[in-house]
Amino acid sequence: MQSQRNDKVIRNIRRLIWVYFWLLIFEGALRKWVVPRLSDPLLIIRDPVVVAIYVLAIKAHIWPKNRFIYALGVIAGLSWFVSVLVLQQYFPIKPLLFVTAYGFRSNFLHLPLIFVIAKVFDREEVKRMGWWFLLVLIPLAALVTVQFSASPDAFVNRTAGTGEGLQITAGGGKIRPPGTFSFVSGMIFYAAACAAFLLHAGLVRGIYRNWLLYAGGFALVVATAVSGSRSVLLSELVVISMLVVIFFTRPSALGSFGRNVLIAVVLLLLASRLPFFKQGVDILSDRFTESAEATQTTVATNLIDRVIEGFTEGLSHLDRIPWAGYGLGLGTNAAAKVLVGRTIFLLSEGEWPRVLLESGPVLGLAFIGWRVAFTVWLGSVCYRSLRGGEILPIILYGSCFLTLLNGQFGQPTNLGFAVLLGGLCLASTEREYYRKRPVAAEAPPPPEQSRRLPRRSAYAERLHDRTSASGGANGSVDR
Question: What is the pTM of this model?
């Protein structure tokens, strides 16, 4: 009975993870078009879902208990306590609690969900979610095409909330279309996830139907061309680069790769015939070139410098940061809106500098160290799965490891994709220690009922059912 109750709770956890997935995709649409006046509360619309998942996980006795969870709990508790001490002399209690609580949820609240997903999802459930990623990509590509073609101030290009701001521009009078997300960052992570599932299906035949692969591949090419974002293209290239790891570890897994390259070329040629495709590619190409010229470097060098800067920017100023930092959450846009009335970066736009400035060199470095250690550990687990013959984990790892390392957790969409893709990646490894959960024992088959032959009396029934004296009934002696 207890096992049956646990199985029911686990099914509910799975349903809530799917709710998390759908909210992640469509919360931006709610904030921009459906209920823009509730844009600010909708920033944390997935938080109650996460809390409900945690409550059910504890109830089902599958709450993750490992060194990462214990270390995260210690860092989170100390960071919040120290930040309250630092900020209490500058702010009233209400904004102080809001700012530090928002910083807590941005840095720590969602991360245990990675392990919960790995406990209740198996590889087939991960592939099922991949199917939906690819299916939704088709209308999403049509939407970003419309946004790219429309004027920056069109209704379809409005920003979250009721303000008059515009989406980030890409040049040539075009914006970087965000699709259903609040900003283009959502499309960056969504494109990376779709690239991962497409690449896996291209290497392992029979995962999805051909119509979905061809339509999804075509949609991804179109969405990338009109994205106006270098990061969209680079996130896909990082996923594709996992082929190098696969080639050196299990070259036999690339047996059908040549055939799928030809299909990809055909899809690219078909997409290039669309009238808006060339304009989108030209804008994207200009962004690469202009950025390189501004720094007087090559395109490749500029991209490498940009990636390295995200890791080194905060570390170069450690000696100037107070040991306790300036306060948890103070570097998020939500905190800035509460404190100064508008959305800006009060501390730093980069993630590692934000963490260090908020929590100080000690606790800030501890949290950064946690993210590095977890990302390296996840990579090692995925690599072991690859050596065991499963390629999906290492491909999904390519879609999430950078955002786990230094993605902007203060931005809810970035945080959501880091957690969801990290959880799917770990779940696809089917590492038994992190998947072990109560399983209901199979009910024994019902005992076979002796069937009475038609037109047989009760006396004849007793005669036919007699057994040997060693174990049978004794007729009227037993009555």
Answer: 0.86
